[in-house]
Amino acid sequence: MTLENNGGANGVAWDLKDLYSSVADPKLDQDIVDAQRLAQEFETQYRGKISSLKLSDADFLLQAIQQVESLYEIMDRPAIYASLVHAAKTDDATHGALVAKTRETRTKINQHLLFFDLELIKIPDDVATGLAKTPQLLKYTHFLEQKRAWKAHYLSEPEEKVVDVKTLTGRSAFVRLFDETVASMTYPFTQDGAEQKLSFQQINAKLYDADRSIRKAGAEGITKGLKEQNKLLSYLFNTLVLDHQNDCEVRKFPTPMTSRHLANETSAEMVQALMDSVEKHGATVHRYYKLKKRLLGLPSLEDYDRYAPIQGDMPLVSWQDASKLVRESYHALSPEAGMIIDQFFDANWIDAELRQGKRGGAFSSSAIPSVHPYILMSYTGKMRDVSTLAHELGHGLHQYLSRKNGYLQCDTPLTTAETASVFGEMLVFKKLLEKYQEPKVRLALLCGKIEDSFATVFRQVVLTRFEQKMHKARKEEGELSSERFNTLWAEANQPMFGDSVNLSENYGYWWSYIGHFIHVPFYCYAYSFGELLVLALVQKYEQEKESFVPKYMDLLSRGGSESPVDLLARMNINLNDPGFWELGLKLLDSMVTEVEELATQLGK
User: Fold this and answer.
1) Strand, helix or coil at 363?
2) Is the pTM of this model over 0.70?
């Protein structure tokens, strides 16, 4: 068996015993029973007493917040465990049933807790402001402020209960249908006259093949597969975009993006400045792909050539070597970071082996604050997997450090969620450059990093522009045809590539498998936000060295206890300055220049 097939990660599976010993652990069912009982007791104890609080009632409110925080941990523990065992083995019906059971139970429990948020926002403004600043409640100031930021958009309690219950058979049901449809789809791939039916993960890998005919066949197969389900996918998009529209109208959100800005703790002006800055640097992308065309020796660069490898045979990296390299990178940042990362390996908090039925992709689950994060990925020994490991461990470090803020404030908004993950990737990337001195390998590493950054910075703005166009067209034109979706997709993508890449008519269908549009409307700009933020932090690290580290670790440890603007102000970064985004964009431009110079040195 080759390294590529097993990655050296055989046996690297997580141990979930810190949550439950198994799906049959009696403590799991007991926690569900306890959560239901505690929720009912909480409702009995506090209903009708929160909205009428006075400034002198800080201790009473603190008690209520601490109780509900503890309750959420008990309620979430079974659901998180269910999601993790299901991700590890999706083809086990027991795991799927446990996921459904815990989701339904959470919805029932939440019916007893809805009143709390609704009463919090009914506290008079002057009293609420005063309470949030009392010594007893300082730990929860940001939590309380964020609850009130949504004040104008809550419905009445009976309405919220109906929405909560109907979501299971409404929006959530359509999202599940999308997920299961996309997961079950197969794509025809023809090579040497023989046709195979491949999964998306399998056929998408063909786009990274050194053989152009394989890349082209892969792209054609993806389009054919998407066309086969185009009617259903178009209907799901139309339905869920309309659902979001209706939600915005009912909850009085002035634009389709307003709710996402509130959740991300950002502003429309800040996001517009970000997107405008990215689009002004389109020439950087055009320069790179024109260079790539030259490096590949092609007369033109087609859409299926975008991910073609610059270097055919890149070295494979064993799990043991990857683990060592990643550990060393985090230890070099700080001993504390290194010791935390060591625990992920030594205590079996990572699931990395290839396994039938395992969920695709990679993630770090924060689990619950009283436990610790867990990481899932499938390690094959490729350079890209080393970066994925570093990325997810960055999330894990962030989540581990932020546990001290408690359940209500440990999680960060999407805008700062990548602060440690992308930073960790950059640390490991620099280690890889030190390790591999051969010019052709270095060129391939640099090109890979640039393309990853383009996908995170420029492509995510493209996806957001497509969403804006899609929501606008759906509102003004009614139900959209698949051809209309295709046109909007082409309009959004063309500016990123200019005349450097030819986008075919077939590429027009490639909007229809992207889950972010379905799961979380306007999710994507946060990736661009996070990447450019981290590129600025990397430059500060290189300038300040040791003095940077304590401030950075403190930033991570604060989790979601402060707004992104306030958190970054601690690092002397002003997110409200439109010019801030230029720092990261100029770094990307300099990386393209470095690749151009290296290519010239190699005579390419």
Assistant:
1) strand
2) yes
pLDDT at 165: 87
Single out the residue of 340, 549, 538 nearest to residue 428, CA to CA: 538
- Identify the burial level of 575 via C-beta atoms within 10 angstroms of its C-beta, where 0-12 means exposed, 13-18 middle and 19 or more buried: buried
pLDDT tens column, 535-578: 999 999 999 989 999 999 999 999 999 999 999 999 999 999 98
Distance between CA 238 and CA 258 in Å, rounded?
20
Residue from 205, 200, 53, 192 nearest 132 by CA: 53
Closest alpha carbon to 147 in 176, 113, 178: 113
**Closest Cα partner for 150 from 124, 130, 122?**
122
Cβ neighbours for 48, distance < 8 A, ≥ 6 positions apart: 119
pLDDT tens profile 50-98:
999 999 999 999 999 999 999 999 999 999 999 999 999 988 889 989 9
Name residues whose C-beta falls within 8 Å of residue 598's C-beta, 6 or more positions apart in sequence: 439, 442, 443, 446
Which residues, 6+ apart, have CB-to-CB distance to 332 below 8 Å? Answer: 338, 427
Query: How far is Cα 388 from Cα 225, in angstroms, rounded to an integer?
Result: 27
pLDDT digits (tens, 9 = 90+) for 257-299: 999 999 999 999 999 999 999 999 999 999 999 999 999 999 9
* Axis-axis angle for helices 230-250, 171-184 (nearest 10): 150
Domains and CATH numbers, the chain: 26-149 (1.20.140.70), 316-435 (3.40.390)
